[in-house]
Design brief:
The protein contains 2 helices and 4 strands. With about 55 residues, it is an alpha+beta fold. The strands form 2 sheets. A two-stranded antiparallel sheet has the order 1-4. The radius of gyration is 9 Å and the shape is globular.
Length: about 55
């Protein structure tokens, strides 16, 4: 999973739903830890601006 930093609005919705806590806000944008991400797609499903891509 990748975050399009140009589209991300930093709302933090994805941070709250990640089951493995792989997402944090860095400089006001979502950042996904690729080592702990399980690629479940939950974050992409809740992103209001579709900033998360596979």
């Amino acid at each position: 999973m990748q975050v399009n930093k140009e589209v991300c609005i930093g709302c933090g919705t994805c941070v709250g739903v990640c089951p493995v806590e792989a997402i944090s806000l860095v400089d006001g944008k979502a950042d996904i830890n690729q080592e702990t991400c399980i690629h479940c797609g939950t974050c992409a499903g809740v992103c209001p601006v579709n900033a998360i891509e596979e």
